[in-house]
Amino acid sequence: MKKRLLFLLPLLVLCSCNNDKEAIDGYEIEYKEATVDGVTGLLVKSVSNDDVKEVVIPKNVDGFDLEVKFIDNNVFNNFYDLTKVTLPDSLIGIYDGSFKNCISLETINLSNVTTIGSGAFSGCKKLKEVNLSENLNIIDDKVFSNCESLETINLNNNIETISDYAFDSCKSLKNVTLPNSLINIGSGAFKDCESLNNLSLPATLKSIGDYAFYGNKSLDTIVLPESLETLGYKSFYNCYNLFNVTNNASINSSIYDKSGIKEYIHKNIITLDDYMFTSNYGIYSLIKYTGSDENITLPDYINEKTYTINQYAFYKSNVKSITVPNTVTKISNYAFYDSKLDYINFSADD
């Protein structure tokens, strides 16, 4: 009798009777027959050498009539030296933690992969580019979390859910195209994506989870669509440059407050050259420097008033040298965080 083992993969059945290994240039791949959601093919069960730098997974394997379709949980987990993986066009499933902590992996083509498991590429710190399948409809939990070098991600028009912490701490992520099919953004989905500054929420979006955009220090504009029904706790907390918010959603005001978004809505924006100020009960604050100069002198007054400098006002700016007049009454913590500043001149009283 053939024994069948059920693994924690989507409707995955492994046949223990057909198990083989293939040796390829310094590493050995173990395969098993598997059936997932009615599709039968070969599952990559293990790869022998975790010091390998490049791996080619073939479409066909000697001794099997089936094509390679799946990669099992954690197969390449902690392959620290792995820089390149070539996947066959027959591959449709990559499961939980498959490439987790492959800290040298820079690019991978997932254009035919329709299922990507939780944490599959988490901790791939050098991963810069990913090509996703047009047939992918969910970004699973923590799939690309802590991918610190990932700059751009294009999501297809079939994706309905971006799950919890999917892009958490992708610190270089600047641009995300959210598709018109998107319904749910999970908790912490884009948490601490501190470079993200180009984001448009689609008209189909119904839910934004807790901490979804927490700590997005570069995000300055957001439009909440009319379709939005749920706005999570602290979903926009610590978004210090978020000064342009349009709320088209019908959300309870207390929930709106708890999201953290209200704290960063500045209704009275005043622009003076490359400086943006806000006025609150006659107290003026510099909230953002929008210029690109390396050497600047701050204005003496705004509307003949003294002013303060807010947190992250010069976040990621090119300013190297700045002259601060004595009419600036306060410089908040982190005002020059992650800028190029190396010299401050505080001007003396007249």
Strand arrangement across the biggest beta sheet = 1-2-3-4-6-8-10
What's the N-to-C terminus distance? 95 Å
Beta-sheet strand percentage? 25-35%
Question: Unreliable segments (pLDDT under 50, ≥5 consecutive)?
Answer: 1-17
Helix content: under 10%
Order of helices and strands: EEEEEEEEEEEEEEEEEEEEHEEEEEEEE
Could you tell me the mean pLDDT?
88
Shape: elongated
User: Structural class per helix/strand content?
Assistant: mainly beta
The largest pleated sheet is described as:
7 strands, mixed
Number of strands: 28
Spatial extent as radius of gyration: 25 Å
Individual helix count? 1
Describe this structure in words.
With 350 residues, this protein is an all-beta fold. Helices cover 2% and strands 33% of the residues. It is built from one helix and 28 strands. It has one helix at 253-258; strands spanning 4-6, 12-24, 27-36, 39-47, 54-56, 68-71, 84-86, 93-94, 107-110, 115-116, 129-132, 138-139, 152-154, 161-162, 175-177, 184-185, 207-208, 221-224, 230-231, 244-247, 269-272, 275-280, 283-289, 295-297, 307-309, 321-324, 328-331, 343-346. A seven-stranded mixed sheet has the order 1-2-3-4-6-8-10, with no helix packed on it. A five-stranded parallel sheet has the order 12-14-16-17-19, with no helix packed on it. Strand 21 (269-272) and strand 22 (275-280) form a beta hairpin. It starts with a strand and ends with a strand. Residues 1-17 have low confidence and may be disordered.
